[in-house]
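Cross-posted from the bioinformatics board.
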Amino acid sequence: MDPFSSDGELVNIHTAFIQGQYQLVLSDYDSSDFSESNRLAVQILQHRAQIELGQASEVLSTVSASKASSSPDLAAVRAYATFASTQDDASVAEAEKLAEAQGDNLTVQLLCGTVLARAGKQEQALQLLAKHQGSLDAVALIVQIHLSQNRTDLAVKEAKGARSFAQDALLVNLAESWVGIRQVCLILGGNGRRLVRMGTC
Amino acid sequence: MYGWVHADMVILQGGENYQKSFYVFEELAQAPSSASATSLIAQAVSELHMGRLEEAETALDQALTLEPENSTAIANKFVLDTIAGKDASESRAKLESVDKGNEILADLAAKREAFQTAMAKYNPKFEP
């Protein structure tokens, strides 16, 4: 079940996030306005927005190591923020550890999957992301990883599969559009491979 | 003749996909309620692929107004300047200062090294 589906309370903040409106994600939403069960999801989106804006060190000071040890979601945020600010091997090892122990957690799948993919461990990232349960965020990340490996064919397949269960969702439109930019590049010899990089990856 | 037909088909197919992607990115990038640097960069990249360099530059400049330090925007500006035959040293220097390990810089360094290795196999000879 996708926690960000269109009938939920999280739809607006999630849409702002995937559109890359990171400043808006931080300024227009307050986790205390959301119902108890969604507060963590809001905090995570806000931490991710901060990291996208280059404020990983602020995230690291908010999400302390002790807070991170209390929840796999926050542990994944901390591993991602550490990787974003240092690119060091320790954060990759931490992401691997979380992927091993908490691979069913969606935040772990998305954030540790991103760390693994960026650290050159795309196959491990794909294995982790394969555990998702109908999450379009996971699908979008899988599409990005396939594109980064020059496997446009697999990216097309993944995006098509999502279209069948999510019809007109924005993330599916975006995923198809990322693929569309690459479809002829492959035929002509792979130029422009590095040009597109979107918020979720 | 056969070769020409084939090349035409490739270009047509790509054009249609680029155009579809462009519409999605443009719609997001140009509506005030959804605009962001990310969408503007995606719009610019679509336009680069379609050879519309001036429009690509406009979109990239808008992205850089929103987020002046956005390394993806700067990397694509570097690409654009190079394609347009402009002096790309400024955008390159900016990219180096903002994101030293950027993929495109690493790629350029690797290609330069490969070229030097290949060059070392040959001795230049000049005809008098």
